[in-house]
Amino acid sequence: MSGGPEGERRRLLTVLLLVLTVLSGLVDAVSILSLGHVFVANMTGNLVFVSLGLAGAPEFSVVTSLVALGGFTVGILFCRAALSRLSPPVALVSAAALCETALLASATVLHALDGPRRVLVVVCAVAMGLQNAMAGRVGIAGLTTTVMTRTLVGLIGDTGAAAHDRRIAVRQALSVAALVCGALAGGLLVLLVTPPAALAAATGCALAVAATATVAARR
To answer: What is the mean pLDDT of residues 61-86?
Structure first.
C-alpha cells in the first residue's frame, strides 16, 4: 500500500472491514444454527432457501427467508438515505458500526429473553444490509465483508490487472480467512455456550470498529 496519510487511511479501513467480516461469520452462524436455516448476511443463500421452501423442503421456511431479505433491504436503504453522504469514509464506517452495535446488542438481549425468531432475523438482517451497503461505498478492493464467491474468483481465477496486484490478493485471502474464523467462532459459541454469547461477540466486534473509526474520524 502507498505511504503517507492516504496509505494509513486505507490500512485502517482494511483492518476495520476485516473485523466486520469476522462479525458476518459470527452472525450467520447464529442465524443458521439457532434461527431456522436462514442467512442474515448472505442473501444469495436465502434466495436458494426460498426456492427450496417453495419446492417443499421441510427444513426451509419461505417466510423466514423473505423476512431476512426484507430486513437486509431495509438496512441498505437506511445506509443510502441516512449515511451515504458522510465523509471521509472512516466517518461512514463509524456511523454504520454504531448502528450495527445498537442493532446487534438488541438482538443479543432479545435472544437471551427467547424473543420471536423472525424479529431476531429482521434485526440482524438490517444490521448486515447496512454493513454491506457501507462496505460497498467505502470501496476497498477485495473486501465485501460478507459474500466470498466473487472474492474467491478474484483470488484464484482472475487473469486481469487485479490478479497482478499483490495488495488486492492479500486482502482477498484475509477476507476469506476472516469469514471462516468468524463462522467457526460463532459455531463454537452457539454449540458450546449459547447463541446470545455469539451475538454478544458480534456486538463487541461492531463496538470495537465503531470506537476505532470514531477516534480516527476525529483525528
So the answer is: 92
Q: What is the DSSP letter of 114?
A: T
As a residue count, the chain comes to 219
Residues 177 and 24: beta-carbon distance below 8 Å: no
Alpha helices in 157-193 (DSSP H): 166-192
| Residues in contact with 92: Cβ distance below 8 Å, sequence separation at least 6, in sequence order | 83, 84, 86, 134, 137, 138
Q: What is the pLDDT of residue 48?
A: 93
C-alpha 8 chain-centroid distance: 23
Mean pLDDT (whole number) for 143-164: 66
Q: What is the DSSP string of 34-58?
A: HTTS--SS-HHHHHHHHHHHHTT-T
- Tens-place pLDDT, residues 75-121: 999 999 988 788 889 999 999 999 999 999 999 999 999 999 999 99
Q: Which of 46, 80, 29, 63 is nearest to 182 (CA)?
A: 29
Mean pLDDT of the chain: 90
> Smallest Cα–Cα separation from 39: which of 22, 61, 18, 54?
61
Q: What does the DSSP 8-state code read for residue 23?
A: H
Q: Supply φ then ψ for residue 63, to 5 degrees.
A: -65, -45
Q: At what angle do helices 195-218 and 89-112 cross, to 10 degrees?
A: 160
Task: Taking the CA atoms of 68, 126, 105 and 134 in sequence, report the sign of the dihedral they define.
Answer: positive
Chain CA centroid to CA 37, Å: 17
